[in-house]
Structures are given as structure tokens and as C-alpha cells.
Amino acid sequence: MKYAGIDIGSRSIEIVVLRNGNIVHSAKTDTTFDLLAQCKLLMKGIEAAKIVATGYGRKLFTDESGINHVEAITEIQAYALGARRIYPDVRTVLDIGGQDTKVISLNSNGKVVKFEMNDRCAAGTGKFIEFMAAALQVPIESFGAFALKADKKIHINSMCTVFAESEATSLMARGEKPANIAIGLHQAIVDRTFSMLSRVDGKTPVLFAGGVAHNPCVKSLLEEKLRDTIIIPDNPDMVGALGAALYSAGR
């Protein structure tokens, strides 16, 4: 039998299908304005004994998808399960997604002991990075690498998207290099994230999931702050969907 997990985020949707505990299929698409249509597109041709949904769109999916054998779990559950499957010794899971940040502390048995979630404001999330990249006229895909070219870090006072853009514009008008401003913006994100890690007593090893895990500057600055390496899976976007699939399979 096949078991599926689907992670319905604000920016993207991921699906993972398991058979006998092994991944036999995975896919990803943009959420767009019609997340139900996108979910059905991802599930086309997939026959699963059960599907478990997670992410901000999970309730709409379970209520309106019309698919039988559907259940929902929280993102905290899903990411804890997925991270533990990828790296059994993980003690902290960090997920920076499109519009929220999650930090989950696990005990040595993989159980959630504490977590914190910033879902009230886009500050420090993928959306913030996307907005700032646009303000500096740098493609989002290369924004992290661009920031690593800096020769000094410019301190950014505000994490509010509107005020940060205004601050960045003022700095450019004073002749500061865009790369130096970019690394300052990344440092502000990492400082905010590190505060969340501290509040949940986050221990190493830390597994970094979510779309922002693809950003090399965030990774580098986090490791500098933690004074340790962090684990980034081959597909950091898929951790939540994997966890949901594992829950679906009863693992």
C-alpha cells in the first residue's frame, strides 16, 4: 500500500508518497491563488490508502478536497517526524518558510519538548528575503550568494518589511554597497532566528528545513552564530510532507 503526505504552505505545496516506508514519489508546485486545484494537480494519478495533510492549508484540504481517507496534523508534528527520519540524532528543527518560522526542540527520543512559531508577521521569513531582494534589484535565487560578496556588514535596525526597505534605500543613497546591505539584512534575519532558537533551548544537531534553507548566506551566518554546522537535507522543502507521509503510514 502507498501512503501520502502533503504540505500545503503559503508559497508552495509538496507531496511525498511512501511504500513500505520508502519514498516512491515526491513533487512540488506553487500554491497560487487556488491551492485546492494545485493539490489535486499534485495528486493526479496517485492512489494512496491514506493521505495526511499539514501546513497552513490543511484544514481547507481536509474539508473541501473531496478525497477519502484524509487526516490533518500540525506542522510541528510533521516537521519533527520528517526531520527525525532524515537525521535520527536531530535535536532541533528550524523551518523558515514563505511566511512563517518554526523552531522545534526535540528530546533524545525524537519527541517534541518545546516549540516556537512566528506566523503573525513576515519579518525574517522567505517573503521578507524576497521583498528585500527585489528592493536591491537582485534575483531571489542568487540573493544569498550576492550577500556573501560583502566586505562588511551593515547593521539593519528594523525587521518590518516596509521600514527595512526604507532603511536599505537610505543606505544606498549614502553610497553603501548593495552587497553590504544585503548581508546586513541576512544578519538581521539570523539574529531573530537565533533568539527563537535560544527561547526553545535549541540544542545541536540542528536540521534546517524550508525554502530559505537553500540560501547559502543564511546557512553561513547561522553556523557562525551557533558555532557549529547545521544539517540541510538534499530536499529541505520536503521535510513537512515526508513527516505527514510517515504519520499516514503509522510510523
Structure in words:
- With 251 residues, the chain is of the alpha/beta class.
- The chain has two domains: 102 residues, Nucleotidyltransferase, domain 5, CATH 3.30.420.40; 144 residues, Nucleotidyltransferase, domain 5 (2-Layer Sandwich).
- The protein is 39% helix and 22% strand.
- It contains nine helices and nine strands.
- It has a five-stranded mixed β-sheet. It has a four-stranded mixed β-sheet with strand order 8-7-6-9, with helices on both faces.
- The longest helix has 22 residues.
Give the strand order of the largest sheet, numbering strands 1, 2, ... along the chain.
3-2-1-4-5
Q: Given this structure, which CATH class of the largest domain is correct?
A: Alpha Beta
Number of helices: 9
Q: What shape does the CA trace take?
A: globular
CATH topology of the largest domain: Nucleotidyltransferase, domain 5
Largest sheet: 5 strands, mixed
Structural class: alpha/beta
The CA-CA distance between the termini, in Å, is: 14 Å
How many domains, as an integer?
2
Q: What's the helix-strand series?
A: EEEHEHEHEEEHHHHEHH
Q: How many β-strand stretches? A: 9
How much of the polypeptide forms β-strand, as a percent range?
15-25%
What ranges have pLDDT less than 50 throughout 5 or more consecutive residues?
Answer: none
Instruction: Kindly report the name of the CATH homologous superfamily of the largest domain.
Output: ATPase, nucleotide binding domain
Please, what is the oligomeric state? single chain
Helix content: 25-40%
What do the pLDDT scores average to? 92
Radius of gyration (Å): 19 Å
CATH-scheme architecture of the largest domain: 2-Layer Sandwich
